[in-house]
Amino acid sequence: MKPRPLTPTLSPNEKTIGGEGVRLGLLERLAAAQSERARQALLRRLRTVEAVDGAHIQIAGKQLLNFASNDYLGLAQHPALREALAKAVARWGVGASAAHLLGGHRDEHAKLEDALARWTGRERALLFSTGYMANLGVLSALLGAEDLCVQDKLNHASLLDGARLAGCVLKRYVHADVASAARQLDTHPSAPALLASDGVFSMDGDVAPLAELAALCRAQRATLMVDDAHGLGVLGPEGAGSVAEAKLSQDDAPILMATLGKALGVAGAFVAGSATLIDGLVQNARSFIYTTALPPSLAAATSAAIEIARFEGWRRDRLTRLIAHFRSGAAERGIALLASRTPIQPVSIGDSAAALAVSAQLEEAGLYVPAIRPPTVPAGQARLRVALSALHAESDVERLLDALADCLP
Ligand SMILES: *Cc1c(COP(=O)(O)O)cnc(C)c1O
User: Which annotated residues bind pyridoxal 5'-phosphate (predicted)?
Assistant: First the structure.
């Protein structure tokens, strides 16, 4: 049986809205789609975390070693962030009370934008409330119906949704394949074009060929946008990200977006680039204009996080050691990993039900390693997404390796 799409496209015989027949209830359709998902082992399940302590979380009363966190540097519970947040709350209260353009933009936001611009080597930076909103805002502000957007097939959902919202021509290229990207640009050689790529791919952990993509964009007069949600804090000198690691200037990579909720341990996102870009976004990015500013306390906590992320290089060194340990230990035990040098170290499984079963077994053994299944990853490529953090000890990695060796089919 073919799964019924949740939002079916209109087929020719359905285009008479309100035609004959009994109208199908939207929630009935939703329920039918749910059962179909469950049948295919694709149902998503919300788990409630009852406590967090370093690399440990508690779910359903059980202590688990957490390998699912994007808190790569171990900053989300850091005392300096808590203190900066508490001080800012004492000064400002809790909410920003308004959108940035209508009195919500506090000096904590302005200071954070300056710090982000300095760190990433860009002229200016602009805060957004989430990474999802930043990507929607940038793409819909820059691209119109006649424009071309070329994207890696494995880009984050928010980049794809941004292109859909913009209504531009969207062409996707084979993952990390620069020749394929060039062919997609060639399909519309005279249309203004944006090439967007994740810096570090969120479900695979590999790094985009950024220098080659930048060269292609220069040759084709396309604008390069990099979403560095998983690279900022982790890669490059002082953790300035994948773009800094590839030594790409503001001219090479004119649009840099990254989030504040991953390695920085807080929440929110920013776009960095030229004054022209930032001023244009302030005028046109609807997800910036029509939403409440981040709480100023979160901006203050993020400024504190940047200091630690930049200057406590031992956190990155420790991550590097843990990654090497995990990869060599996996090779010794015959565990298949994807090619990744970042803290995202997925274990290939393939079948969704099998991935769920292994994840459940690991949980029995006290380890939280969720299964990632379609449509988050392509069909037949279900996996366990192992995320390492400076909070882990070598012995935690050893425990994970032994448990994986026991549980994998
Ligand atoms: C997490 C993520 C986002 C979304 O960021 P949020 O702040 O969580 O909304 C965007 N792009 C990539 C690559 C991500 O991993």
Answer: 131-132, 202, 230, 259
Does domain 93-311 fall into CATH 3.40.640.10?
Answer: yes
- The runs of H, that is alpha helices, within 143-223 are 157-166, 178-186, 210-220
Query: Which amino acid, 143?
Result: L
What is the C-alpha to C-alpha distance for residues 378 and 386, in angstroms, rounded to an integer? 18
Reply yes or no on whether the pLDDT at 329 is more than 60: yes
Helices (H), 225-351: 242-245, 275-284, 286-289, 296-311, 314-333
Closest CA to 277 of 146, 82, 120: 120
Nearest-CA residue for ligand 1 atom 8 is: 131
DSSP annotation string for 322-364: HHHHHHHHHHHHT--B-S--SSEEEEEEESHHHHHHHHHHHHH
- Extract the tokens encoding 57: 């979380």
- pLDDT of 189 > 90? The answer is yes
What does pLDDT average to over the chain?
95
Q: Would you state the structure tokens that stand for residue 337, as one six-digit string?
A: 């990993």
Pick the CATH number of 50-76+313-407 from 3.20.20.70, 3.40.190.170, 1.10.340.30, 3.90.1150.10: 3.90.1150.10
- Band the pLDDT of 8: cuts 50, 70, 90: very low
Residue 82 annotated as binding site: no
Are 225 and 194 contacting, i.e. CB atoms less than 8 angstroms apart? Answer: yes
Pocket of ligand 1 (CB under 6 A): 130-132, 135, 156, 158, 198, 202, 227, 229-230, 259, 261, 269
Is residue 96 classed as helix, strand or coil in its secondary structure?
A: coil
- Residue range(s) in the chain whose domain bears CATH number 3.40.640.10: 93-311
Question: Separation of 162 CA from ligand 1 center, angstroms?
Answer: 12
